[in-house]
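User: quick one
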Amino acid sequence: MSDLAKEYLILWASQTGNAEWIAKNIHTEAGKKGYKGQCFVMDDYTIAPLQQTGVIILVASNTGDGDAPDNSLKFWRFLRRNKDKTYLNNAKFAILGLGDSNYSNFNYTGQRLEKKFKELGATMFYERGMADDAEGLENVVDPWIEKLWEVLPTVLLQDTTLSITESVNSEKELEKQMTELRIEPELIPFSMNNRKNTLPQAVENYIALENSLIEAVETKPVESSSVTTESTTSTTPTTTVKHVKGYPLQITLDGLEAGVKLTGLPRISVPVAKLTKLSEQPLDTKENSVPDFVVTPAPVTYAPVVMVSCLTTADAAKRTLELELDIGQETHFEPGDAFGILAPNDEQLVQAILNRLNIPSSEYNSFYTVEGENLPTHLEKATKTRLIDLFRYAVDFTSHPRKALFRMLADHTTDPKEKLTLMYICSKQGTATFNAIRDESPTLLDILESFPSCQPPIDRLLDLLPAHLPRFYSISSSPLKRQGKIRFAFNVVNYATLGNAQRKGIATPWLDNLTNLVPSRTTPENQEIDISGLGIKVPMYIRPNANAFILPTKSERPLVLIGPGTGIAPFIGFLEHRQMQRKIRTSMGTVGHPREIQDSFGPVYLYYGFRDKSKDFLFEKEINQFKQDGTITHLAIAESRATDTKVYVQDLIKRDAEKLYELIMKKDAAIYICGDAKGMARGVQDALVDMLVQYHQVDVVEANKILMEWIASKKYLRDLWA
Ligand SMILES: Cc1cc2nc3c(=O)[nH]c(=O)nc-3n(C[C@H](O)[C@H](O)[C@H](O)COP(=O)(O)O)c2cc1C
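Assistant: Done. Structure below.
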């Protein structure tokens, strides 16, 4: 009897959709190759044939601080409790991890899965893939999948009921198309940099193409639409918006030499989504709300915005806003919790893309259904939706484009030179060009306008664009101080790229506009503007804290809080909470002497940083107040741009190392850090390692191990973003 397994099982865990997309693509392609198997999100493990399947393929990303995605937490509970060393004896497994090397716990979920699966008796049949979002996931994912197909026949039996010959032949044809695109002599574009003076005719043509890629493309203005609604509601009405143009891609084609063979092209992903106009157009009753297909883990509240304030001056490097939302008495939260905002894509961008796709404005409000096998979660419920809502809420036009998107666009481009350029961008030879384009974060509009003859069908765009996701913010207030209300602070994302393209975020400029672009602060004290009368509402839901980034239950425990920039936000919530707890305890009069009250709350060290006190000292008034009333016992402020000496929070941690060592090691202080994962968190980590080397007298390796133990035991808590 053959010991080859008959079927495979794919289990995926995904926070923002990448792992889901990759897992479902592997599943669809495996089916095309004649393999049989099933694909489940990890949390559906109870209905997955976990013990019955001989080959298990795991695709998992990371979130938080090396944490597993939300849709795998139940599976992890099950794995942790399962101590049966023979539970997966019959299984061979492979893991593809998705991570980001900006985080120190790079691809930790994949490592943990491997360990656990081995403990449960499974054997690994293929090397673990560790894809890195910082470099581009494709660099690892594509070759990993490519090799998987080579390895799979050694562990998996082909399904003999399917015509293997047929499947192999069509595969060969596909392979030929994708990996052997030969450049015909008349299309050879020579290197532009060093051959400009001796250009053959073919290249002259090519220069014309390059210019056409650089010049802005003339587009028709958007026609006006029939529906208009008031402008102060939270959701976006269908009305004519100012027409925008994209920023054309700057494409270097130096790698395209005579006779070059393009290799390593991404697989043409199998079409999944099928968009059909509904024959009966329903009455539109939900004009001003988030469409039903948007799935959230908690119910959506339309929270009125009651206050807005700009925390920075006009000449500060960033614009920071603070908002207060009325979430009602029934919605519970703790300081440190985060919440999601469901902001639509930028309306100007949406309408410009629809226009570029030649979709008349009369179609925007028509109802459509999206169907297909293995649809991604964000499209699964789009069975009755207005076309424009798919563009506003289903897909993301601004995040890094996938190589597979360029590959698909090439298929829908008629001009041979444009087609070749698209193929080059996603080939192995075009890696540097792809990376340069990716670094510029082009929108779909930028890409489409750079290739005028490209006309992709909407279905295929739905297949290849990433999911549009809620944006998360830390709550910066305490329920003890503001019952039924939350405050939060954020930088309005709006910047120019190295290539001079103007980019903006999705939710933060939307919130800025929604709250009427309040003026920057002009005095040291920011002005809080009451806008409760304007009727502005924001669709949101509370996301309870998954990684214990909350105050310790014992108030005696000392706290070390490290949060420069907007990383201060959750700590303002912590401190407000502490301040209220102290007030409550004092007013109860049970403890008596102020000294005793002091003792029942441990010392609080705050390490906070900004560029320039006069421009971006966020929460200055509140922090001074916390210092004055003893809520903060030690305040360390790092100012990085006020003088020639740049001081960062990590410098102050180094300065205070001896004192901190006492507090952390002898008094069991809890350490919290919030903010940028790259520069700041690494710097702080190094400062803590130095502290341990000097005062705990261990070497660097041992010091790092201690930090890892602190992270695991939740003594060192991190809320970081890349
Ligand atoms: C808030 C956040 C936290 C993250 N934390 C980590 C981490 O600790 N380690 C890591 O390797 N990658 C981390 N990542 C990177 C993701 O794992 C990576 O972007 C991946 O492609 C996401 O895949 P998904 O869309 O399937 O969730 C983080 C990403 C985000 C947005």
